Amino acid sequence: MPLTERNIRKGKLFGIFAALTWVTIWPLSKLITTNYSSINPFFIAFARFFFAAIAIFCIFLIKRERDFLLTVKNHWRLALLLGFFGIFGMGSFVVFSIKYTSSVNSALLMNSNAMFIIVFSLFIGEKITPAKGIGALLGAFGCYLILNNGFAFKLFSSTTMFGDLLAMGASVCWAFYTVVGRAKVKNINPIHISALNFFFGSLMILALTFILGIPATGIFQPVPFLTMLYIGLVPTAIGFTIWYYALEHVEAGTLGMYQFLVPLLTAIIGVLFLKETFTVFTFIGMVAILGGVILTGVIGGEKPAGD
């Protein structure tokens, strides 16, 4: 489509809407893990991406997108790899982190992935610019403050450290997913490959629950089931799809700014509605991480990854 002023404006609106849907993932997942302890977090991650995959597959079927079958035939191995890191790894770490730390910390640390992206980018021949280097250090400092809850070294006394480290693990997985995807996914419909990633990744999560013998207790209770259905359909299926649409009309650096709404609004929701603690060190860490993401993702030329 031509980059008319109307299309650019529409792209920005779609980008903002996508970011706003992603904000709901953390507090809603926190509500499930807090109020329905019988539901294992693995099933939240599975439901999120499985429902998203099925919804997008249905759209392909209605639109009769036969090209999708070519994507499956030619790129299923790549989809398995991306599904393992970007869906199985990232999705599992995120929901488990929410169980053991605040939604604020989880969202902030997950969105610190820009600093890991520049490290992995070295392996595909990209260079670290001064802006990227400073941004990565600034982001790392912010992560340290949140993990440590202070300047003085006391990491192993933090009550949320385990959950915080899981969120960091999700960030690393997503960074790897982003870099590998950028290096390997060329001339492939991004919605096609994302739908495959969702499907394969969700099946990996489900397979692990069988291997570990985790019972699917309570997942069909009305409130958690409908909540997981929403997370799968709206912030995941719809959110990712319209984000890709927005990228067709708006530069990645400009659009990436809207992702900063995710940790900021998650923090507000966590404090106001979930009664979570928001310390001065969390605030300083937030500023440092967002500053680092701006430097690495916008000024430094990196594209901040999605949630």
Walkthrough of the structure:
The protein is mostly helical. It has one domain. The chain has helices at residues 5-23, 25-35, 41-63, 67-100, 103-110, 113-121, 130-148, 161-184, 190-212, 222-247, 252-256, 261-273, 280-299. The chain is globular. The model is unreliable at 302-306 (pLDDT under 50).
List keywords for this structure.
disordered C terminus, mainly alpha, 13 helices, 307 residues
Number of strands: 0
Helix content: over 70%
Note the overall shape: globular
Gyration radius, in Å: 19 Å
Broad structural category: mainly alpha
Could you outline the blueprint of secondary structure elements for this entry?
Blueprint: H1 5-23, H2 25-35, H3 41-63, H4 67-100, H5 103-110, H6 113-121, H7 130-148, H8 161-184, H9 190-212, H10 222-247, H11 252-256, H12 261-273, H13 280-299
Helix pairs in contact: 1-10, 1-12, 2-10, 3-4, 3-9, 3-10, 4-8, 4-9, 5-8, 5-12, 6-7, 6-8, 6-13, 7-8, 7-13, 9-10
